[in-house]
Design goal:
Blueprint: H1 10-16, H2 19-22, H3 26-42, E1 47-51, E2 59-63, E3 70-76, H4 94-97, E4 102-106, H5 116-132, H6 134-137, E5 139-149, H7 151-159, E6 165-171, H8 178-181, H9 186-189, H10 193-199, E7 212-217, H11 222-237, E8 242-247, H12 257-260, H13 265-276
Parallel strand pairs: 3-4, 3-5, 5-6, 6-7, 7-8
Antiparallel strand pairs: 1-2, 2-4
């Protein structure tokens, strides 16, 4: 065995980040997400495929919460930056919508068609588009909050410094890219040393930040939990407004149920974040 990261060889490292392989009934989640999301996207007053950038996937779906000048929650999907689509994740709007919170779900170009630097740039462009179109869409541009799951958790941390953002909720995120660059996931990402350095939030803990509420599941793979724990610890060491909650009984996929439910833990956290912002 040749250890390449934290005592793990290549095969062990690949398994340590194989969220799909770790959950036996993952396809049931994926099918349910797609079915519920399709129904929400088809129902008025949803506005789908609003273009924020030139590439085919650079569009977003917008779900009005119904109240005038209400906050906006932007949810960024996961898939290790190389799979999935926004259309499968509209269901994450259901919890916030039940409380009158508007929701936007952006798509983005996937690797290998885009480098991770480009993907981060697209999410920034989506936030800028939303801020500039707040009046037309009907939300409060001073109350934009972001969140994301898995790779979307990484993107949440990366763009939390966007001037429009008031706080974020990274869910089961990736904050250090070195293990990603050493394993099978890099076959499509093609991360180089410069990108690992520049795009690993763990390596760039700021002196100031908006509030970030990190979450992961108690039944997540150990590496996923470690990523959140170490990022939260590093941020707290800088006395930043960053916290971590581990949700017992949840794995990498079931945790999103807590955002789809009006009384879910993630929905409650979002409401608390919004209220705390003033």
């Amino acid at each position: 065995m040749t250890a390449i990261y934290r005592g793990m060889d290549r095969a062990t490292l690949d398994a340590a980040y194989d969220n799909t392989g770790a959950v036996a009934n993952v396809q049931e989640y994926r099918e349910r997400w797609l079915k519920v999301s399709a129904a929400l996207r088809a129902a008025p007053p949803s506005r789908c495929d609003l273009r924020y950038g030139p590439r085919p996937r650079a569009t977003l779906d917008y779900f009005p919460g119904g109240a005038p000048n209400a906050p906006l929650f932007v949810f960024i999907h996961g898939g290790y930056w190389q799979r999935n689509e926004k259309e499968r994740f509209s269901f994450t709007a259901l919890g916030p919508l039940a409380h009158g919170i508007n929701v936007a779900v952006p798509g983005y170009t996937l690797a290998p068609e885009a480098r991770l630097t480009d993907i981060v740039g697209e999410i920034r462009a989506a936030l800028t588009y939303l801020e500039e179109h707040a009046g037309e869409l009907g939300f409060n541009p001073e109350k934009i909050f972001i969140g994301g799951w898995s790779a979307g958790g990484h993107l949440t941390a990366e763009v939390a410094d966007h001037p429009a953002v008031r706080g974020g909720i990274p869910i089961s995120g990736i904050f250090e890219l070195e293990p990603i660059a050493l394993g099978v996931l890099n076959d499509k990402l093609h991360l180089n040393a410069a990108e690992v350095e520049a795009l690993s939030p763990q390596r760039h803990i700021p002196d100031r930040s908006r509030p970030l509420l990190l979450f992961c599941g108690g039944n997540e793979l150990p590496e996923l939990k470690r990523q959140s724990e170490e990022y939260a610890a590093a941020a707290r060491a800088r006395e930043l407004p960053v916290s971590l909650d581990v949700l017992p009984g949840h794995h990498h996929f079931s945790i999103l149920d807590e955002l789809a439910k009006p009384d879910g833990a993630l929905t409650r956290a979002l409401r608390g974040l919004i209220l705390a912002s003033g």
